[in-house]
Amino acid sequence: MDFLVALAEGFIGMFQAGGKTFMGLFTGIIPTLIVLITFVNAVIRLVGEDRINWLAQKSTKYLILRYTLFPILAVFFLTNPMAYTFGKFLPEKQKPAFYDSAVSFVHPITGLFPHANPAELFVYMGIADGITKLGLSLGPLAIRFFIVGIIVILIRGIVTEQITLRMMKRREDLQDSSLENIGA
Questions:
Q1: 26-61: b or e for each residue (b if 16 or more CB lie within 10 Å)?
Q2: How high is the pLDDT of residue 27?
């Protein structure tokens, strides 16, 4: 009998813990995200969506800027996870690669700009603790982390874009062959 009571309490406890987590999100990051989304949308409406799209197209015209400058600006200004919304200014075929670049940069930016991803600060601080115990400065670590992050997001963006283009081409070829089979 005690086993069944413990099982029932554990079962409902799992949902209670989920509810506490949900309320933590609901009173923590969700209001911040809603206000940030509202602000960004207001700025887009004030400036004009056409102008924002033009600026995004110009700043992402070149592969190197698309997977370095654009994700850096997104993560710096909008922080994690709002930064991914910058992808809405890109053509569909570039969105997965932008997301890959942006999500890969939310950690390397932390050493220089902790506001960009405070949830990941504990990882950087763990490394930083070891460096300071050795009597070394954190500045060079943060700069190297940032530079390596830029190199990584560029590589990931290029590779993911190529994979996406191949997959889209393959899907188009399959659709074309299916239409040919139906028409035959």
A1: eeeeeeebeebeeebeeeeeeeeeeebeeebeeebe
A2: 75
